[in-house]
Amino acid sequence: CAGLRNLFQGLSFSAKYYSKHNPPQTMCPYSKIGPKKCHILDSSKSTCTHRTVPAGSILPCRFFSSKEGTKVPSKRKQNTSIVTSDLLHKNLLKSEQKNWSNISPTYKAMTKRIKEKLEELHDMYALNSGSPRMRFGENVYFEENGCIFLAKADDGEGNAEVLFSVEDLGFSDAFIQRIRISPDQKYMAISLKSENSEEATCIIMKLGNLPVVERVIPSVFSFEWAADDVLYYTTQKNLKCQNVFMTTFASQKHTKLVYTEQDARFFVDLYCTKDRRFLTINSNSKTTSEVWLVDCRHPFESPALVQARTTGVIYHIEHRKDQLYILTTYGEPAEYKAFLTDNYIHGINLDTYGKENWQLVYALEKKTKLVDFEMFSDDCIMFLKNAGHLYLNVISFVSHSVQSIKLPTWACEFELESHPEHTTSTCYFQLSSPVHPPKRFAYSFKENNLIEQAVQEVPIITNCHTTRLLAKSKDETLVPITVFHNKNSKELHRRPLLVHVYGAYGIDLNMSFKEEKLMLIEEDWILAYCHVRGGGEQGLSWHRDGCQHNKLKGLCDLRACITLLHQLGFSQPKHTALAAASAGGVLAGALCNTDPALIRAMVLQAPFVDVLNTMMKTHLPLTIEEQEEWGNPLEDEKCMKYIKSYCPYQNIKPQCYPSVFITAYANDERIQITGILHYVQKLRKAALDHANRTSKKGNWIPSIILDVQANGSHCDSSWEQSLNE
């Protein structure tokens, strides 16, 4: 154990913020099952043969200067400039930490009350929202409280045995992100992540009467079993995944590199088709993709290309009964469509894979978002979103029919449970909303109906009303808004309103259940979610209409949404707050500059607020990859001027700003602290300048507060970390 701990302490844990097929496992802090000790081999048993990135590698900070492009006359002056900038960064950070230490005691009583209420709500709902189950024949695998359990399907989970425990390894701050069981169930691959890093470590357990650690692989992002003892995995370095390795666990163990992506815009991950016939190597940029197939019956053969990357075409692969099914944006309109290959596949036949052999099976309706899909032996299930509503479309390959089922009106998010066996007759998933805890549902292919699974003692949310609105933007585009408020609230125009926005990367607003949202509803707040362009709520075109040279459309959408809410009597500007995280900080910060009178407060979490300076620095790990979202100001002067027109940091000016609270993370590799420090300093100075120039009676200076968290990162945090924030 000591040897393994020493090895772990030299490794960086990681995880990607998002993953289409493999969301982070939900952690439940309560378990009635007593853990059983795992026997752990000494670290010398690890046989991984390839070298990895040095542990603890730290990405360079982003230093912003008003003299971009200034030529440095000598190396000596350059070194002096770096030292000066580093010293300025440390002084700014120290100043903000001191400021927060002085301010935070003011909120002590309020913090205590809120924390107690949130813990009460968490205790009420957490016991009933277990993590997803993975079913393999008679065996059920599940994760709770940092432990992985194995139970028999007919035996109940009370007699489950512990296969793995994070606590036994001495890592209380690490959590399980991904689990993969080998086809013969003799091996289990697990990725561990800490809150302070985006890099993960993969642990391979050999299962049996006494589970043991077989191997430890650092800096891993995705991994899949191609065969009983053959694992493919990708490595992550500086937020990029570009290499795919294959490693074996048979008598002759070896590891080799099988694929390398040369284009910095592309990110590589792995996925197995539902029937486990192929392992897919997926290389994706923001707008283009390419897939290579590994035949799981011949896992040592070289991968075969399905369709060479075509600019603007995204595609994903599934397999069923000797035919490939391709989910792709190929063809007009450029939304997702389902195709299948024309010919049977006998082994690897490259001639049948190209898009000239694709036959259209199903096309989405206009302004419909494909959230996820799952392939089964005789059916395919698609989870869709249209005008804010969730739908379940069941495509039958036997009857060649499509059945559409509208899910409950309160549902805003779903999580598909793992179904390793594609021949199963039931599809399980969970539905939730910001104020509705997850409820488990099942769709039966045999009965052709939707069944709500009974959950013991789950409190029913009856006092919350859900409203869906459409706001008319500047160019007449209708923008969806989802509103939640207490049914018993009177005089809604006097109630406080919290508006949420994101609008980037084609990603939907996060509308999963949060205890703090339910608490606000109970305290007569109104919650509004603005599904502006740039996000993905109405399909791929919705994203295209809000990225690059269309980014200002998202700002117009946000302005129209807040204005409509006030016109309809949902609160008023002096009671309105705006919340955003990460790239959502671009639109929130832009609105704060252009329309500060619409809101009284703004709350930002790890916000992206200096687009221009960031996109001018190609040495940063994500800059080249993100040119498809924001543009390339280095090569396009029009793009530079356009970004400058909306960039929050560039457009700060003396005026009456709302109060601002920002949470940032000292170890954030995506949105680094330096840019946020400069933004806060500039915003505070502008607000103070305005107050000094217009010293009228009753004039107020907004509170602009920055809380820099020593722990945490840009990824999802644990319940305890979220509670502290």
Helix content: 10-25%
Looking at the structure, the CATH topology of one domain is Rossmann fold
Kindly, what is the distance between the CA atoms of the first and last residues, rounded to a whole number of angstroms?
A: 34 Å
Structural class: alpha+beta
Strand content: 25-35%
* CATH class designation of one domain: Alpha Beta
Strand order, main sheet: write it out.
Answer: 28-29-31-30-32-33-34-35
Spatial extent as radius of gyration: 26 Å
Basic shape: globular
CATH architecture of one domain: 3-Layer(aba) Sandwich
The poorly predicted ranges are 1-78, 343-348
Averaging pLDDT over every residue, what do you get?
82
Structure commentary:
The strands form seven sheets. Strands 28-29-31-30-32-33-34-35 form an eight-stranded mixed sheet, with helices on both faces. Among the domains are: 133-272, Methylamine Dehydrogenase, Chain H, CATH 2.130.10; 377-457; 461-723, 3-Layer(aba) Sandwich (Rossmann fold). A hairpin with a 5-residue loop joins β28 and β29. It contains twelve helices and 35 strands. It is globular, with a radius of gyration of 26 Å. 20% of the residues lie in helices and 32% in strands. The longest helix has 29 residues, at 75-103. α6 packs across α7 (584-594). Mean pLDDT is 82; it is low at 1-78 and 343-348. It has 725 residues and is an alpha+beta fold.
